[in-house]
Amino acid sequence: MITIAHASKAFGDFLALHDVSLDIPTGSLTALLGPSGSGKSTLLRAIAGLDDLDGGTVTIGGADVTQVVPQKRGIGFVFQHYAAFKHMTVRDNIAFGLSIRRRPKAEIRRRVDELLEVVGLEVFQNRYPAQLSGGQRQRMALARALAVDPQVLLLDEPFGALDAKVRADLRRWLRRLHDEVHVTTVLVTHDQEEALDIADRIALLHKGRIEQVGTPDDLYDRPANEFVMSFLGSVSRLGGRLVRPHDIVLERAAGGSAVDGGIRATVRRIVRLGFEVRVELQDDDGAEFTAQLTRGDVEALALREGDAVVASSARGTPFEEPSLAVTVAS
Amino acid sequence: MRLRTGARLTARTVALAYLTVLVILPVAVILWRSFGEGIGGFLASVTTPAAISAFNLSLLIVAIVVPLNVVFGVTVALALVRGRFPGRGALQAVVDLPFAVSPIVVGVALILLWGVGGWFGGVEALGVKVIFGLPGMVLATIFVTMPFVVREVEPVLHEIGQEQEQAAATLGASSWQAFWRVTLPAIRWGLTYGVVLTVARSLGEFGAVIMVSSGFPGVSETLTLLVHGRYLDDHNTFGAYCAATLLMAMAVVALVLMTLLDRKRSTR
Amino acid sequence: MALTATRSRAGNPGPGAPAPSVERTARARRVTGTIGPLGIGVSVLWVSVIVLLPLAAMTFTALSGGLGDLWEAVTAPAALAALRVTLGTSAVVALVNVVMGTLVAWVLVRDDFRGKGLVNALIDLPFALPTIVASIVLLSLYGPYSPIGVQLNATTPGLTVALAFVTLPFVVRAVQPVLLEADREVEEAAASLGGSNLTVFRRIVLPTLLPAILSGGGLAFARAIGEYGSVVLIGGNIPGRTQVASQYIQQQIEIDRPVNAAAVSVALLLVAFVVLFLLRLLAGFQRRREEKAP
After folding, report:
1. Are residues C42 and C153 in the same domain?
2. What ipTM was assigned to the predicted interfaces of this complex?
């Protein structure tokens, strides 16, 4: 368990963290999610001790580590750009922390072999980082961080520098690793899909403050505010309310009567994306929004471009009052 | 632009003629003169007691100057790249200063600081002869070679960034351990290149050293001073040519090393 | 373990929300990678003792008799003559090498012939050679025992040849990389629009090369004015004709006139600084112009 209490940090005039408090449960995989500049990396580095806080405390495993150097916090850190020791082989990279602690050679050898197997890099053990792919380098960095049995594993946008496919594969691999090793893990990411995919808990940050903390379902289905809702998934504005595109129900407009609770709209475009169909609509006031239907729904309605329909939401939303325009996040 | 054959050949001829007259021919002539009495004659000329003593002195100066420049040069480079302090820009400018200073001016400045009557002239009273002694020659050589290691290490430090060192910290390494095991290996080729430049320049320094040296053959003559002394004082032109050829050979070796290292430090 | 779920409204906190009391936690020791105050102190000390202090002592000496004495020392007839010879010859040499250096760079980049690699390597020789060796090397061909009967010792041409030798690489090595990177397609476009070779060179290629040429020429000039070792044997040290500033300074030290020596040294340094400063301005101007381009 990591406890951050009233953390604040400024870089010159820019307030990166503003009175942030957060508990991270032992053994969980928690994602610090947010757009750039939200303070998530700053928070992670503060937990690591790589940056000092201006105010507030950090507690790891019950001990106050706010004044403690990173070397002594019992953490493992994985950087976005790997920070591989370029002049050392993969083996030597992984063994680094152990050799600093002057463990006996035999023990080091055994542990490195173990980790090479866990991350699947046995074949590359005598290569240099420059000869590995990005994904391989990151797995090496992970093994290196785990070698010293940290109480806490901190990852700073670890998949940010990788291709989309490698990113998806590697994050699921990380989740499986976490399920086996059970180290308290904190992951910083700006990719909400990544957070929803593998995290037990998500803390969403925005402009140096925490917007909401909870399980992925908590944040997706019961967002605390508009920002959370639009960051976690796509949103559509239905007559002044924010709803999820896949919660919108379309019915044929009967004559000129307005249906209770529904909005009259015209179908502008129908885009078939495999199983899902995206229907772009425009209401009578000219505002555009999107609904997401299945192929079946569309065929059942025999929807064509130019049709008049009535759109309503299957679920209520807590955000009734009009607010500043929200872009349709995707 | 594609030059017509005539223009192209003319350009080539003029350029090559210029280089021949300026560089190739003089080098050829001195080689011819140095070996005019055969290899034996050449070797005899460069192994006289005075020559050997000059060689030893030059090497001694190099042996003192290089380690000092490595230790302090790396420190200065670290301060310039990683440090945050007022006057960092000024420090950078001062590091580049030696390139703008004439070697004679270096000598004058050192004499006016360390010589009798200078600000630090008091050392003389303590029995340490700086000007007209080895320390003076060492100081002059350090002045002119100071920028090399710093300027070769700086860009490398910039390039590798701080992340590797931070990673080492999270893995438990102290500042010293991180420097020794992560930073130093990362800068080793830039550092080596800087050392080669330092050695080459130290062996070749003339103007600054002649001002602060008493110039006695066999005692306080470096190789460059030997060349000068043989030509001017001894009227031993042959001896001067041979010593000059020896120095030229060293310069070529340095050039070759630099070319080899250049490839290493850009691919790492 | 209870999870603290913090809910807040999106956007700014309400007006008047008090800032939390920020306790200034004492700084934990900085992470490795940054150099400590000791390292910075050592660096400053080292650079000061080695470079700054000697130059400061010299400047003080030059000013020890007040600005009036300094001016007198610099404008003494012999000193002026030496400065005239130095600045004049260096300017000529810089000009010569600007033209020939650009030509050599052109031939090395755009032409191809047997032995080009060797010629290219040769360009660095004057850089690497000790200055006194340069003097001797040139003397062997152009000195009193010249095998071709050309004796340039104790003449101004001799001085010029020596300085040209030493400063040859500056312009060549400055221009080469720019030529290598030059966009041939721009030249081809100009040619296709009807430009003759001369026009293309004058209006397309030269402007691209100009900053590098000026930079190389400036560096060559700054180097030439301070030269000693390469001219000391071939120049002849004739006051008013072939005595350069550095030789004059050395003479003043030998006859125990440190103030004169320091004064002329300061003058020489100032010229070098001005040239290098102008070069830096030019480089900054050039960079800013390129950054403005979309």
Report:
1. no
2. 0.89
Nearest to B167 among A69, A83, A87 (CB): A83
Q: What confidence score (pLDDT) does residue C291 get?
A: 73
Instruction: Give pLDDT tens digits for A95-113.
Output: 999 999 999 999 999 999 9
Spell out the CATH class of B38-267. mainly alpha
Q: Which of C47, C141, C233 sits opposite B91 (nearest CB)?
A: C47
Same domain, C125 and C33: no
How near does any CA of chain A get to the CA of C40, in Å? 21
Q: Which of C159, C181, C179 is nearest to C96 (CA)?
A: C159
C186, C203: one domain: yes
Is 50 exceeded by the pLDDT of residue C20? Answer: no
Task: Check whether residue C133 and residue C89 sit in a common domain.
Answer: yes
The answer as to whether C77 is a domain residue is: yes
Across the interface, do C1 and A212 touch by the CB < 8 Å criterion?
Answer: no
Q: What is the pLDDT confidence band of residue B35, given thresholds at 50, 70 and 90?
A: very high
Q: Is C8 domain-assigned?
A: no
Same domain for C89 and C212, yes or no, is yes
Q: Which of residues 163-202 of B touch C (CB under 8 A)?
A: 165-166, 168-169, 173-175, 178-179, 183, 200
Is residue C128 in some structural domain? yes
Residues C140-151, mean pLDDT to the nearest whole number: 86
Residue-averaged pLDDT of chain A = 89
**A140 neighbourhood in chain B, CB within 8 Å:** none
Predicted confidence (pLDDT) at residue B7 exceeds the cutoff of 80: yes
- Structure confidence at residue B205 (pLDDT): 95
Q: Whole-prediction pTM value?
A: 0.82
User: Which domain, by its residues, includes C81?
Assistant: 66-292
Name residues 35-64 of chain A within 8 A of B (Cβ).
48, 50
Distance from CA of A87 to the nearest CA of B (A): 7
In terms of domains, do C159 and C276 share one?
yes
Q: DSSP character for A274?
A: T
Residue C166 included in any domain = yes
Q: How far A299 CA sits from the closest chain C CA (Å)?
A: 39
Question: What's the total number of domains in chain C?
Answer: 2
Residues C274 and C255 in one domain: yes
User: Which residues 34-53 of B have a C-beta within 8 angstroms of C?
Assistant: none
What is the Cα–Cα distance from C219 to B102, expressed in whole angstroms? 13
Q: How does DSSP assign C179-214, residue by residue?
A: HHH--HHHHHHHHHTT--HHHHIIIIIHHHHHHHHH
Boundary of a domain, candidates C44, C62, C80: C62
What is the distance of C-alpha B198 from the center of its chain? 4
- pLDDT single digits (tens) A236-248: 888 778 888 888 8
Query: B62 pLDDT exceeds 50?
Result: yes
